[in-house]
Amino acid sequence: DTKGIYYAKGTGMPAWTTDHNLMQKRKNTYTMDLFNKQFAMSTTAHSVMPAISAQNYISMLHGRPWETLPKEYQGTNGTMGQHYFADFGKDKQLYPSVFKVLQKNNPTQKAAAFSEWGPIVNAIVEPDAAVKTKQSDSLKSFDDVADYIGTDDFQNTAMVYMQSDYMDGQGHGNGWYNDNYWNKYAQYDGLFKKVMDKLESTGHIHDTLVIANADHGGAGTNHGPNDEPDSNIFIALGGETVDSGRRLHGGSNSDITALVLNALQVPRASHMFNSNVFDNSAFLSQGELAGKKRNVETVKLGYKGDTVKLGLTNLKKTRTLNAVDMQIDLAGRNVNSIQTVDGVKVLRQKSENGILKLTVSIDRQPVEGQTTDNLATIKLSSVANRSAGKIAIKQAMAGTTDGTEVLVDLDNGDANNISRPSTSKPLEPSKPSKPSESLKPSKPVDNGSNPDSVVNVEKVISLHESQKEIPLYTSDLKKISNKALSGGSDWFSDKTMTKDGVKYYRVASNEWVNEKDAYEYTNISSVLTTPKDKITFLVKSNGEKITNRALAPSTPWATDRVVN
């Protein structure tokens, strides 16, 4: 976190501080730049409880919080050194690891795991999982991963997992977050750089999602309690489709499996619980990727009346495209005909649920010119009352003559009209930890008692999922006509505004959400038991009663958030 660090004197209790001199003790400049500028990162994520290694690695790799597992499956640091994860050897495996889920989805793809802490690769990952495992030497897991990236096997590998145990040893031996801890942590710059450089040099930086996280924190020479120094962790995501520099909010170690499956477009496993893509704002749609200035080929669409023209721009002299696969939203229109230019052939043409799936082969590289029709022209049927939506390419992938897949940019003119929260001024909640002497509460603009007021706050809100799109308003309550937010998404708000008795939350510089469309919440990790003498009814986030589902008496249920 660029705004502060945990710091302790000797083996004392760590405290969150923004003192500049103390922050200078953190010397890992490469990883600070990597995670804060090139990745999207949450510094308000938490370990599962208890904040101990085995419990958190089980949660990461098996897709649900440790405490929600049956007793038999609740491995510990001690038992995982003596026994395999409890699913091993059973006819029906109830809580398979992410490796097993990937193996079932595509048996031909490979996986690998390199861990400096033996129980991960020797017990937590099932011994019959189709995964190459190695217990790495201290500080050598990064070398092992970099070496594996350079092998032919990596070409067909779905997931590589790695774990470094060195800093846990430093915490136990000398204390967490003290001078020694931060001095030792600096060496991870070179280790992370080795892996990232290998991805870059092999070209896999463009088709790999990197997830970096911690299993737990610590205090004194131990860890485990439910306090911030012990449980506060970071989760950072880096890759081609990640919104670089975005500050994410929330997250848990149990979310790691969900992030992996989402990236690989593999369906969730039925046993997963409280394992989610915790902040969808981390990822850009393909239409938004052009903002990253990636210098890749662009598929361009232009249309007028009943005619759509498709073309390629920003072509490269160093490679030749030989195919393009596209999904085009025709806004309710039907295709009359598709006419390709010389050297381009239609391999697939299928309309499904309003989307045209079109694949073309290219026998010769199109000549980039001033017009957009160097691939194909589509003639659409005339419709008197056609959809108000805009015709746009939703997804596209190109292939080269040497077999490389290229995630191209999309140019749909002004067809993209759903906004993302601004990243020019990152908004993030402060650490809810024990303050140091350098932390003092700021004075709010107003205490909120006035009929019309603006108050500085630090709140996390969620938009009601029952609404597909949530309207935005300016500070003078004018509805923003060309922007909206997705229902079910989470947002950080740094100000509230009350006008005529109605509260609004600010989510960007001049974009506000009405309180009726959102609710405030706090992330927790707990298990609740329903009353023993009655059925417990459920409600949606907006208070609407759910009529087709209820909870049985005396049953335990994990919960990850509480409404404020």
Automatic annotation (TrEMBL):
Region entry Disordered, spans: 407-453
Protein name: Uncharacterized protein
Biased composition (Low complexity): 433-444
Stored InterPro entries: Alkaline_phosphatase_core_sf, Phosphodiest/P_Trfase
Taxonomy of the source species: Bacteria, Bacillati, Bacillota, Bacilli, Lactobacillales
Pfam families: Phosphodiest (PF01663)
Source organism, top-level taxon: Bacteria
